[in-house]
Amino acid sequence: MKNDHQTCIHCGEDCGPVPIIWNAKPFCCQGCQTVYQLLNDNKMDQYYSIQKAPGIKLKTDQIPSDEKFAYLDLEEIRNGLLDFSDSGVSKIRFFIPAIHCASCIWLLENLHTLHPGVIQSSVNFPKKEVSITFRDDEITLRQLVELLASIHYVPEISQQSMEKPEKGKTNKTLLIKIGIAGFSFLNAMLYHFPQYLPGSESLEVEFRIIFGWLSFLLSLPVLFYCASDYFLSAWKSLRKKIISIDLPIALGLITLFVQSSIELIVDQGIGYFDSLTGLVFFLLIGKWYQSITYEALTFERNYKSYFPVAVTKVTSEGNTTIALNELKAGDRILVRNQELIPTDATIEKGNASIDYSFVTGESIPVAKKPGDFVFAGGRQTGSAIELLVQKEVEQSYLTQLWNQDNKKADDGTPISGIMDKVSQYFTIVIITVALSAAIYWNFADASKALFAFTSVLIIACPCALALTIPFTFGTTMRQFGRKGFYLKNTAVIEKLYRIKTVVFDKTGTITHAQSSKIEFRGEKLTGEQIRLIKSLVFHSTHPLSKAIYESIKEPIIDEVADFQEIPSMGITGKVKGTKINIGSQYFVTGDQSSDKELKTQVWVFIENKTLGYFQFENNYREGLAETIASLQTSYELHLISGDNESERQNLLPLFHDHARLNFNQSPTDKLNYIKNLQRNREDALMIGDGLNDAGALNESKVGLVIADNIYNFTPACDAILQAEKFASLHRFIQFTKTSMRIVWLSFLISFLYNIVGISFAVQGNLSPIIAAILMPLSSVTVVAFATFSVNFMTKKKQL
Asked: 785 with 295: CB under 8 angstroms?
């Protein structure tokens, strides 16, 4: 029995005449069998169900020896590679060239199944990067790399590759290929030019032969070097039994080269080497154009999407709020309870309890004292601390942290799903059309068969379709950002387009606590009691706490011990040994009776005695009535608030439905309320302040935070809206419908282009070189249309 045609279950390679058999399955080498057995033992055989033979076979020089990664045990190398390391948890990014398919992503994002020391891992497929968070006491950096190598995903480790994995090298290589193809194309045109002139038949045979062979020589580096990526991509895909969009291009190039070579050898002409070299040249120009446009989009998203994070800078004149990008090394900043640490710093004043769950996924707070180093991305839990900034803010790092949250990864976007299905069948249809045209013209007019076949393969490219969504949504995202509405990523636009329900929080969302009229009712406060109150509320970021702080003019603030902030309840702590509780009536007095007073109240307890309460005259945000009226025409509106029912009668005329106004809601109640809406397929937009409603924001289809003064940066949210832009909220949401219409129009333009182009190509009236010029032009057209349309409509809609 012959085994010549058996392929490896793991990698798809030919197993040869003597395959390794394990569990009745063939493998090409011991390495593939070991990986298969490892995944099988850990019940991870889903890896093979996502895509057939998805694994990578290691070359001999890639197989790690016992000491290959020993250098990773050195402390200085380890510290240089890690992005984060604190309290036994570390985080690192690896560039892994072998990442190539959905199975790779699935396996690398399930590393925790292979080793309990891995907390979380996520893949950035376009960059071929995997970000891994792990516990140092369970798996070392060396063991982590050895684990990756054991499943054939060997990372490229160098400081340079960790910072910019292959980006500059890729761009440089592409430019070299364009240069070679351009040189060959121009010279081949000169050699072929006499053939297109009247009287070319009078050209001496020797010159024609010489020009032909010179063109042949010029085509060799173009075909085998400049166009190599198309052949490699098509070949690898075919080995995996996948038909990629590069296959038609590879077939067209091979057909042109073979036909031209045959004509030259049998002396029937000098072929179409000018078309071949020109085709590759223009294909590479199109590829370069797409790469720089994608980079421009990525650059702006990573470095210019300045979501509203501000910091409190401590100066000799007092505290002042500054923009995050103005922060410099050496500045002193104040970080209150639940505020994000924006950059690497050392603690100057106060004891910190840092929650690094935003960075690592681990929510256990880490205790820090003055002089200790803290990493960007941590969140202070407790009293306010002063930090000395060690380096300028890396906005891109904060953006990356915000985007790494994959809580809604299962929320498929239907438009992207349609594109995935289209791409699966696109190439098969195009190859069928090209073959049909070639067969027809081979009998009708053989001179047109080659051009018809090649032109159809080249001109019909789904690149324009693929560019439609990222450029339409990317431009929309940038326009929103310039107007004060900051989105986590472009997928949020389509989710906003599909929402059916809008849910509002009250305090700090539809009310503006800082501009409210505040009055204290109860015992007359002494100067010492006022100082104690101001000292405690100084450490809280809740809108009512900040409003009380701003209303008290006494400048002196004392140290606070044992500070705690309990969501939807209040704050507590000791100031100069005196116990203070400030918050809801139930939190301070234990009284659960309903409050008949139609005002918001914050009660005060000092040293075993309830002194009274601060009463707020709620001030609604400007444009609230107009915003709600506009949203009600398209969406079902709800309100869920942790406050009492004091504002029900004021809000009822706006919301028009008594049942949709919900008060006295704890954070758990808010979360369950959103879950019920989602369970009923009422895709919800939750709008809050990010303090007591993080769970609800996280559960909703889209979570939106209203940002006031010192802006709250909330990982649970999908979008942040500057408070002064609240009146424009309905216009932002409605504009997502405009963006979707632009997407569909762009799809239509792309389909029409393909239909018209193919109709000319099948008639044999379109040369391959013209097809190669028109193909990138379709991408230019779609990108230009999407960008111009979004920019034009934002002005027309007056966002």
From this structure: no
DSSP state at residue 700: S
602-605 own/partner pairs: CB under 8 Å, 24+ apart: 602/544, 602/548, 602/570, 603/570, 604/520, 604/522, 604/533, 604/580, 605/579, 605/580, 605/581
What are the tokens at 183? 């040189």
Burial of 136 (0-12, 13-18, 19+ CB in 10 A): middle
Token output for 532: 């104690």
* Helix locations, 499-559, DSSP H: 527-537, 543-551
Averages of pLDDT over each 10 residues, the chain, 799 residues: 62 73 77 74 66 58 60 84 85 82 74 86 79 91 88 72 46 86 88 63 68 90 90 73 70 82 81 80 74 53 48 83 81 86 89 82 80 87 89 70 56 57 70 88 85 78 68 84 83 90 86 74 90 90 84 80 85 92 88 62 90 85 88 90 78 80 86 88 84 80 78 71 88 93 88 84 76 68 84 86
Distance separating alpha carbons of residues 439 and 461, to the nearest angstrom: 21
Q: How many CA atoms lie within 13 A of 418 on its CB side?
A: 9
Would you say the C-alpha torsion 396, 399, 404, 410 has a positive or negative sign?
Answer: negative
CB-CB neighbours of 243 under 10 Å: 18
The residue among 407, 499, 411 whose CA lies nearest residue 685 is 499
Sheet holding 610-617, edge to edge: 517-522, 610-617, 600-606, 578-583, 570-575, 560-566
Q: Which residues contact 87 (CB under 8 A, 6 or more apart)?
A: 356, 364, 366
SS3 letters across 212-224: HHHHHHHHHHHHH
pTM over 0.90: no
H-helix or E-strand containing 522? strand 517-522
Tell me the C-alpha distance between 115 and 144, whole Å.
9
Contact call for residues 735 and 362 (beta carbons, < 8 A): no
Give me 497's structure tokens. 């387009």
| DSSP assignment letter at 62 | G
- Full DSSP string of 185-251: HHHHHHHHGGGGSTTGGGS-HHHHHHHHHHHHHHHHHIIIIITHHHHHHHHHHHHTT---THHHHHH
